[in-house]
Structures are given as structure tokens and as C-alpha cells.
Amino acid sequence: MDVSLSVPSRRAITRELASYAADSRFAALPDNVKREATRAFLNWIGCALGGCREPAVALAAATVAELGGSPHASIIGLQQRTDVASAAFVNCISSSVQAFDDAHLATVTHPSGPAGSALFAFSEKSKVSGEDFLNAFALAIEIECRLSNVLVLPPSQFNVGFYVTGLTAPIGVALALGNLLKLDQQRMNWAIGLGASQSAGFRATHGTMTAHFRPGHAARCGVWAAMLAAKGFTGDDYSLEADKGFFDVFSAQADLALAVDGLGQHFELLSNTYKPYPCGIVIHPTLDACLEIRQACNANAKVAQATLRVHPLALSLTGVRTPGTPLESHVSLYHWAAATLVRGAAGLAEMQQDCIDDPEIATLRARIEAIPDATIGRGEAIVEVMLTNGQTMRSHIRDARGSVARPMTDEELDAKFSAQARMVLAEEKVQALLQLCRGLAKVPDVGKAIGAVLHG
Amino acid sequence: MDVSLSVPSRRAITRELASYAADSRFAALPDNVKREATRAFLNWIGCALGGCREPAVALAAATVAELGGSPHASIIGLQQRTDVASAAFVNCISSSVQAFDDAHLATVTHPSGPAGSALFAFSEKSKVSGEDFLNAFALAIEIECRLSNVLVLPPSQFNVGFYVTGLTAPIGVALALGNLLKLDQQRMNWAIGLGASQSAGFRATHGTMTAHFRPGHAARCGVWAAMLAAKGFTGDDYSLEADKGFFDVFSAQADLALAVDGLGQHFELLSNTYKPYPCGIVIHPTLDACLEIRQACNANAKVAQATLRVHPLALSLTGVRTPGTPLESHVSLYHWAAATLVRGAAGLAEMQQDCIDDPEIATLRARIEAIPDATIGRGEAIVEVMLTNGQTMRSHIRDARGSVARPMTDEELDAKFSAQARMVLAEEKVQALLQLCRGLAKVPDVGKAIGAVLHG
């Protein structure tokens, strides 16, 4: 019996990914990928602006004031600068904390937060062109979603309790930052292993600040991985596929080819979507149905009770019956259905404490039945409602708004961004930042240009 | 179907541990625990001094120079100060990198590194008495080893590929630092969840610098968890036992009672041991046998071949046949057996490159057969040797030197410490530090007193 170091028994995907990341260039990206990366970045920075005044961000920033480092990067929305890793950490909490960010539905990964936060922080320290930035950003999202596919999709026997973004984002961020740092393949291998060695998180923290700590931590870990690898800090060459390696411990039966087949040809980034509603992505089709019913009702109609038929994952991940706080509302299918049926809206106002505490909404929450149904798709929902006058109404949503089949339009994304950015920026800055992000590929120095708007 | 936040289906061990950590005081510790905590700290700081000149430490310190924060704590052996979390990170790499630290054999956890590194760094920023320090240190080790028992011991079906220290140390460190920060039970709960949300690491990195990154990262994560919780950053109250929580994802069948039964009465810390040899703990009984055989031989005798009969875990974790570097030697049972049989010693010299490259040792490495035998205990080994003159010799070790059954004596620990400390300190400082550590409970300000010796 003999164990050899560095001899994989499975396909050497670590090296394949390292090689792809080292060689990845903007010019080689198809136009639709360039466009989607641009949209994802606009969505990310809007979410970071929208969330930056939340209590979790203030507490994280206060901790960074004690433990963080040199003022190389900004904390969005605050007059505070810190090191690249710590800025990535806090800004990612901002972009995550309203549950309004993005989602790769097949794996429930939220890829842009760690990617955008880490790369933007780095771009404030070191000059990065818009093209290089977007390429690295697309790379991070691509790697995150592909590794998430390996973890989650059959034949994997994945434990749904793991927080997928926390497992894959440190690796995606490490490779993307490695691309900007021009790491060679050897150091890219090490960056992957260092990132994977920090993969962490489970779903039981949902509904608390710690749920948003997790992506921030993933962003920070990715930065450390790339920076250490850049110094020459060594690791294993086969950390993903090795016996006792990343996939062995997190998803042993997984199909590793999902990580690497068609790299540069097929882009999983194109299956990433932007949230139209600030709550768990699996709630969204239900909200479309509730909005449709509400719009079809007489303005004075009141809903007496409702039945939701949803994909089982919607209840597994967001089955909280009675949220006590805005953070808990993110994982309450019942709250969002009730609030939407009462108010005819599903925006940031519906996650505020006054909405959670609204007696009419609380009463309806208790009168909603949610039925998990394995024949219902992840982006699908059927809602049946009885009004107080006895009338019944029904809506069947097959593809949620914002899904791959019904993507947010540019105009919708611009409107979402503007509403979020207005929470902290004057209107002229909102418009300047929107134009800057829409034309990001042409910007010579991303950190400098965006910093001038944010802090100028 | 309904999912409620914060309602555990299993025993609420998170709260029990939080409560224990909040109330833990030095005066309540039995004398043997006080003594063992003192010995563990002496062993830890010796290892940190012995390892602080290794290349991995220099690279980590260089990265910390870019990403680390305010100069609140020292990097041992370097003229560099940084924030508490980053100092914990680097100093723990130092104490780990020679694989000479400590081990809780039942779970192959190395508890002192993250605990000592995090608490010592904190004690340089904030005044901590020797009694409070040792209490927190014992607490961290106790929690780490108990949580490791839950993960690893039956009925758990644990994946041996996970790096146990990386999973449990962030939680142990968070609670110990929480004790020094005087967190109330609510914040202790959150600290546990924040620590557990950073639990990470797998064994495929063995033999590289990343293997030693992992405990350093765990130390740092524990610091962040406690500091964030101290600010009021919220988390789940049941993160360990919850559905989709820590044990659900890492070891679902586990017996949670192992974490909490007999807290304050039975101390798992007393099953932690100090390494007499700088390599994987599962190699140690083989080295005792090799030394016994070597000492019984004529000084000129040469070993022609050897057979090792060992616990299967020894081969699973340290089965590397041909190490290329000192770091790879840590996980090469074959190298250590060969080097010990040739040189009659198993110390730091036997992990150096010249020993790895020694043709006589390389030849013997190839002539060693290692047989995994499930009837052999973890601390047991049988070595049979044939000399070049045809003579055969045999040694059967039932309890390795340094094990719970044959613990390192105070004199042996002092000698180990002194040899390590002499690598970076003048003799008078070595002796002063030894006396200080031996009497640590009486020291009014640990960071100041030790800092005066290290940097004075």
C-alpha cells in the first residue's frame, strides 16, 4: 500500500482550470458574455450601494477598523478605507445583505458578490482596465458556477445544507484575481488549493447577519488565496480532484467534467440571473403569481387565504413561517406571498420591519398553505387565492421574471440600479455611475473611475 | 410543511457550549488541567519559535505586510507587527510548519496551534493575566477536541479527507477569545456560528505549505468570529445542531452528547499529547521501534530491509513513499523509518533536504514494506528488520513515546522547547522564557511579559 503525493486518480481538472484562468483574455469572450458580465457588474454595484447602510455592514466595518489593514481600497458608502481583502469582505456583505443580488438557479449560487467585491477592491489598489476587469469578473463567475454544477448536479450526492457560494467563490475569486496578477499556471494551481482550503459555510445561518458574512468571507478568502500564491506559497497541484481533496470531501460522486468541458465555448455565466425581488430566488415565481393575481383584482379586494404549489427546494430553503426581522424575511416564502398579495408590491419596502409587523400581512401569512411538489420546476409556481368575497383566483407561472427564460431587460436593470444607488448617491452621481458601468469595457482604470464618482 | 428558524430538532449543544465558555474560570479547573494547559503552551511557543524561520512563514508574513492591519501584535521571530488576526495566522503557521506541535490522537486534531496563536496575539493587544490566559487556552483546546470527537468518533460517518483541526479550531478559538472578551451567552452563540461558518480544509494539501496555511487560517477565523460577535454581529442560536448546520453537513450521524457531556468534569485536553518527533503523529510508534532496534544494534550494523506493521490510518495519512521536500517528509512513514534506522535519530535534522536526498536513506526507503493492520492500535507498531549481515531484529511498541500512556515528561518538554527556542533566541532568553512559561499562571500580563523576552 502506497500513497503518492500529486498523483491524481481522477481527471486533472485543477490544472485545466488553472491553465484556462492564466490564459483568459477579454478579446476571446463572445459578445453575449461581455454584455452579461457588464450587466452583472452593474447589478452588483447597485446591490452594494443599496445594502451599504444596513446594520450588518456597519458592524463588519467596525470590526475591520480593528483588524483590517492599509487603506488600499474603499468601503462603499462609508468614509473608511482598508486593505483589499477586508474591503472585499465588507462590500460583499453590502451587496448580499438585502438578498437582492443574483442567482445561478440550478445550484443556488450567488456568484457576483464575492467576484465583484474582490475585483473592485483590487482595482482600487492596482490599475485595472475595464476589459481586464470584465474578463476577470466573467472568469470568477464562470468558475464559481461550473464548480457549483459539479457539487450540486447529478450524479453528485450533495448535502443541500452546504452553502454553495461559500464553497466555490473562494476558488473563482482566487483564479480571477490570479488572472489580474498574471500568475503562471503553477501559482494558479496553488491559488486554487488555497481557495478551496477556505471553502466554508452552511445554510443554518439563514435569516441572520451571518448568512451575509459567508459570501463576504468567501470574497476575502479568494483574495488571500491569490495573494499568497502570488508570493510563491505552495500547495497541491490536484487539490480539486485528489483523494481527500475538495470534491472528495464535499461531493464525492460528482462529475468533474462539468467543471471543464467546453471552457471558453459554453458559458455558465449566461445562466446567471439578476433578482427582481429582494428575497431568496426560489420565492420569485410565487411573487410573480401573487402580483398577477393582485393586478387582476379589484383594488379593494382582500385575500382571505392562499395556497402555493412550489418546487420542494423553495420550502427547504425559504420555509420560515413567521419572520421576526428583515433578514429573516429573506427566507420566508410565506411573508413574501402575504406581503405581495396585500400590498401588490415586492420590493425593499416589503422587507422592512413595519411590513413584517403589519397585522394584516401577519394574519394572511398564517393563512397560506405551501405545498412542495416535485413536478413543479425551480422557476415555476402555482398560486390559488380565495378573496374575502369568496371569489377564487389562480396564477400559474412557468418561468419567473428575471429567470434565464425571462431575463431582466437592460431598462429593468437600470431602474433597479438607480433605485438602489439613490439610497446613498445624489442623482447626478447615480446617472454618472450608470453610464460608467454600462461602458465599463472602455474605462482605462476601473478603480479610479468608479472611485471618482463614489468619493469625488 | 414548515421550516422554523431557531428551533432545533436535536440537543441544543450550541447554547450549552456558549454557556460553558461564558462562565469558564481558571479557579474552577482541576490542577491536572492547569498543569497540562501550561505544558501545552510551553510546547506551542517552542514550536512557534522553532518554525518561525521556515520559508512558508516568510511568505505568509510578506502577504500579511500587504493585507494585514494595525500593529497590535507581533509576528514571532520577525521584526513585524500586525493586527491580532493576522499575527495569529502567521504564528500558527510557525508552530505548525515543522509538524512538531501536538496531537489529539483519537481525532488527529492539533489543537494548540490555533488556540495559542490567537490568544497570544490578543494578549499583546489587551492585558490578559496568566490565569485568564491559561483558562482560555484550556477552553479552546477542550472545545476543539470535543467537537472533533463528535465529528470523528462512532456513530459518525466522517470523511477522513476533512482536516479536523480546520473544522473545529475556528469554533474553539472563537469561544476562548469570547471568554477573554467577556461575551454574554447570546454573543457566544453567535461566535460559535461565525466560527463554524468558516470551518474549512481537507487533507489533500499535505506535504505543501498549504497544509500549514490551514491551521493558521483557522486561528484567524476564530479571531474574526469572536470580534464580530463582540460587536453584535448576529447569527443562529443553534448553528452546530441545526438542520443544515455544522454537524448536519460535516458529520450527520454524530453523537452530539460527546461535545457537552461532563463539561467541567471530564477534560479531553488531558488526551492531548506533545510530539517527540517532527512528523505525523501516526508515524511515531514506528519511530520508537526503529530507535529501539537501532540502539540494540552494533554501531556499524546496516539495515538491509524492514517491514512495518501499522494502524491503517498511518498509511492513509502518511503513506508517501518518496518525499521530495522537508514538508513532504512530514507525511512519509517510509522516510522517517528509513532515516531513523540509518541515523539512529528522529529529530529536525531528519526532515532536512540533505537527509531526504541521502542515497543510503533513499535506498532503504525503497526497501521498506508497510502493512496496514486493523488489529494494530493507533499508538502501536511492529517493526521487523533484516541487517545486511542477515541478522533479524524486531520491536513491538504498544504505546508510542509522548502518548497519553507514556507522556512526555516535564524534562523532555523543557529540552524540546529549549532546542527549538535556541534556533532564534540567545541562551539567556531561552531560559527566561522557559521560566516564564512554566510559571505562566502567576504572570500579570502575558503579552507584555513574553513580549519583553522575545523583543526586549
Query: Structural class from helices and strands of chain A?
Result: alpha+beta
Mean pLDDT of chain A: 96
Number of strands of chain A: 8
CATH class of the largest domain in chain A: Mainly Alpha
The ordered H/E elements of chain A are HHHEEHEHHHHHHHEHEHHHHHEEEHHH
End-to-end CA span of chain A: 65 Å
Q: Look up the CATH topology of the largest domain in chain A.
A: 2-methylcitrate dehydratase PrpD
Taking pLDDT < 50 over at least 5 consecutive residues as the criterion, the unreliable ranges of chain A are: 1-6
Total tally of structural domains of chain A = 2
CATH structural architecture of the largest domain in chain A: Orthogonal Bundle
Helix content of chain A: 40-55%
The H-level CATH homologous superfamily of the largest domain in chain A, spelled out, is: 2-methylcitrate dehydratase PrpD
Radius of gyration of chain A, in angstroms, nearest whole number: 22 Å
- Strand order, sheet with most strands of chain A: 6-5-7-8
Using a beta-carbon cutoff below 8 angstroms, give the protein chain pair with the largest interface and the number of residues from each chain. A-B, 81 and 81 residues
Oligomer description: homodimer
Tertiary shape of chain A: globular
Binned strand content of chain A:
5-15%
